[in-house]
Design a protein that fits this description.
Layout: H1 3-56, H2 61-66, E1 71-76, E2 82-85, H3 99-105, E3 110-115, E4 122-130, E5 133-140, H4 144-182, H5 199-245, H6 251-283, E6 291-294, H7 295-312, E7 316-321, E8 325-328, H8 330-346, E9 353-361, E10 364-371, H9 378-381, H10 393-399, H11 405-415, E11 419-425, E12 429-435
Parallel strand pairs: 7-9
Antiparallel strand pairs: 1-2, 1-5, 3-4, 4-5, 6-8, 9-10, 10-12, 11-12
Length: 436
């Protein structure tokens, strides 16, 4: 459905509802005014007739009735019999039980509004004792339904005029609104001035475009890096296997070549495992159960697993602190802490140190992993958690690694509601602070 049609329908609905509400209100107001005017007129007429009766007697009622419009005059005795009525051509039943007559008999002024049993219309009744008889005056007034029917033509005429005006105005306004919106450049929506009211939307579109460009860049880098990381070990495996197949390798070197093939295959398996883990974390398909995990024994086990690698790199590992228990996924916590400790060794300097501390600071559980390594440039610190991102290509080409470890760390911190902080300077080391 076109926007113009939607606005037309909305405007017509608004006008219809407004008119219906106004119609109901006007009808009620006019009805109340009619009732109040009728009551006021009857009370005045009653006082007028009362004075005439007192001075001239009941013989003048016929003359009085001629001058009163829509007013019915009755004279009723104390027994409830009608002595006189301006409509004497009708047989009247006894009026003793009428509410206004009962009140008059008690010496009070009786008033009542009801449908007349004689005429079948709504009337206001006024009754008062005058010379041992009851003077009763009644006046007809329109019901709510009659008033509504009376003003209906005016409301319908107004509605037609308003609908025509609304149609013309909507057509003009829609054209004025739609044309500038259709001219918005969705690639660079802020390049030209537009409505202030839609600026927040345009800002969001601009941000989404920037995010999309960033994601496209990351996706391209990811594809290129995945291809490179998978191709490198496969090329090595294929090359060594081809040399053995062709019989070029001497027998004493076969064991060495097989070792290299095994090493590259293991590297490939680790890389694929990490990619699969990230994929499952992305799609939230990793099925694990939460459990109570003691982080100190877990870190001690990780340090023991990494100790051969640390000895090979001439790096010293120090673990200190206290036992901390948290509820989490042991496998993911192991991956997170292993990657951080492995990186602290991998990117350290020869004879460097990795210090790991865990404990409670006030009410917060913390783990601090600090190294004396090559550090990270300020410009790279925001991107190190991206997949395959390498902060220093020259260092990484020598050191190796998949570039996926810190991506897994980031996912693990989100999964366990952990705040991770980074402090690092080039050639001065790196410190990761995990706050649980």
């Amino acid at each position: 459905m076109k926007l113009q049609t939607k606005i037309h329908k909305g405007m017509l609905l608004l006008i219809t509802v407004t008119l219906l509400i106004s119609y109901s209100m006007f009808t009620y107001i006019i009805y109340r005014q009619t009732v109040n005017m009728s009551i006021h007129e009857v009370r005045q007429e009653a006082q007028y007739i009362k004075r005439l009766l007192a001075s001239m007697g009941s013989g003048f009622l016929h003359a009085i009735d001629i001058g009163l419009f829509n007013t019915r005059i009755s004279l009723i005795n104390k027994a409830g019999n009608v002595l006189y009525d301006s409509n004497m051509n009708i047989d009247f039943e006894n009026h003793l039980l009428r509410p206004e007559v009962q009140k008059a008999l008690e010496g009070e002024i009786g008033e009542d509004i009801r449908i007349s049993e004689t005429f079948g219309t709504k009337m206001f009744y006024y009754a008062e004792m005058v010379d041992n008889n009851i003077l009763r005056i009644a006046k007809k007034f329109d019901t709510v339904g009659l008033i509504a029917l009376r003003i209906l033509p005016v409301i319908l005429s107004t509605a037609c005029i308003m609908f025509i005006i609304a149609y013309i105005l909507v057509k003009i306004l829609v054209n004025k609104i739609i044309v500038p919106i259709n001219q918005i450049n969705l690639i660079h929506p802020l390049e030209r001035k537009n409505y202030d009211e839609i600026m927040p939307l345009l800002v969001r579109i601009e941000k989404q475009n920037m995010e999309k460009e960033k994601i496209d860049t990351i996706r391209k880098e990811f594809s290129a890096n995945v291809s490179h990381e998978l191709k490198t070990p496969l090329t090595s495996i294929s090359g060594y296997a081809e040399l053995i197949k062709d019989g070029i390798v001497q027998k004493e070197d076969i064991e060495s070549f097989a070792g290299r093939i095994y090493h590259e295959a293991q590297r490939l398996i680790v890389l694929i495992d990490k990619i699969m883990l990230l994929s499952k974390l992305d799609e939230e398909k990793l099925v694990l159960d939460k459990e109570e995990v003691d982080l100190y024994p877990l870190l001690l086990e990780i340090c023991n697993r990494l100790n051969p690698f640390a000895l090979e790199k001439n790096v010293h590992i120090e673990l200190s602190g206290e036992n901390i228990q948290i509820s989490g996924f042991r496998y993911i916590l192991d991956e997170m802490l292993y990657n951080l400790c492995e990186n602290a060794i991998k990117y350290n300097k020869e004879h460097g140190t990795v210090k790991i501390w865990l404990g409670k600071v006030l009410t917060t559980n913390k783990i601090i992993i600090e190294d004396t390594g090559i550090g990270i440039d300020k410009q790279d610190q925001e991107r190190i958690f991206e997949r395959f991102y390498r902060a220093d290509k020259s260092h990484n080409s020598k050191i190796g690694g998949s570039g996926l470890g810190l991506s897994i760390v980031k996912y693990a911190t989100i999964l366990h509601n952990i705040q991770i902080k980074l402090e690092s300077e080039p050639e001065k080391g790196t410190k990761f602070i995990l706050e649980f």
